């Protein structure tokens, strides 16, 4: 009898082997695991090479006998031990071809036996195909503005860049647009639109011409393009105004009980960087983007062109909490204020209170932990796509922007330049949950939000729509 070899399969290879035993094709395996069909085929080839097998049937039979198909076989025991092993498994090498030729009848019987085993175990294990679907919840796929008061699915959006939910489950969309006026001047603005529980859409702020630090009628206020939003536990809406066009309002504002008020920044042409330690309303910002609120009411803003993250405290003062003002990448493991960022766009507060930063032009996501240190959470720094199934810190991202969290501890990243949404599990493994890299599926998704019921919503920015992920 041939000696037993110990072969180490990766967790993803064990998943693929189990799905082969369940009767799935490479295409179906790819859909189940959110990977390309050719990637599934590559994993299968690796399994055959490691185990010395030559056919799909041999892999399926081995997966069944090794206990990878739940509930149908006992756990595998490594020779010399009595405890089950999940990664290292015993494998008996496939008989040489010469032996098969000498005993053709035995070979036929063996093949039939393998087919029978696969059929016996696979048929009862055939599960309904779970195919995550991308479903449009707002927008027609063509840029424009229409539909207020009616179904969101019949309304036009232009470039939705940011999403947020209130505690009642209403979805808010920062709908940005840029257009040429009749005089040939580029004018840009943002409307904040609300989609209620019945699916109706309405503009609640922005789209007007008023340039002021306070207003009792938020729809009259002019908001610049690329405004971002967040909502706190009291349903106060916080938004950034990037000041890229006519009004030069580099500000952060709040919409509370129907009133628009500025809480940080000023109407200064060209923006600036000043005011730390003083009143936030006297400070200078330069193209603020993402905003976030912690559990105590402090507001964080990605002061993008200043390459820093600012904090607006509850007492109305402002300070820099991350970034030294110089664009670049440095500082991991040290003080966040000594670190270099490069045009950060997104900020988010995790359920445990950590501050996450989409360090966009560094193609990374950074985190400030409770020890006060900044570290890279995801991204290798290469503007590329890769690394699914491995550590998030080794994966390639391309212009990450929006960030979100679910109740299971997963972190979602709008991988905008890759036309995908990535997920980092609590164990640090990264996968793709939406998008295949083509703009037909997702086009530069900029923001993501998780509903109170745990559904993932995506701002499919350049496809002029908001979508949700169903069945993933």
Protein described:
It is built from six helices and 27 strands. With 472 residues, the protein is α+β, with helices and mostly antiparallel strands. The chain has two domains: 121 residues, Winged helix-like DNA-binding domain superfamily/Winged helix DNA-binding domain (Arc Repressor Mutant, subunit A), CATH 1.10.10; 338 residues, TolB, C-terminal domain (Neuraminidase). The strands form seven sheets. A five-stranded antiparallel sheet has the order 8-12-11-10-9, with no helix packed on it. α2 crosses α3 and α4 crosses α6. The N terminus is likely disordered.
Specify the structural class.
alpha+beta
Question: So what's the overall shape?
Answer: globular
Using the coordinates shown, work out and report the CATH topology of the largest domain.
Answer: Neuraminidase
- Biggest β-sheet strands, sense, barrel: 5 strands, antiparallel
**Low-pLDDT stretches:** 1-6, 71-106, 117-129
Number of helices: 6
Overall helicity: 10-25%
Q: How big is the Rg? A: 27 Å
Architecture (CATH level 2) name of the largest domain: 6 Propeller
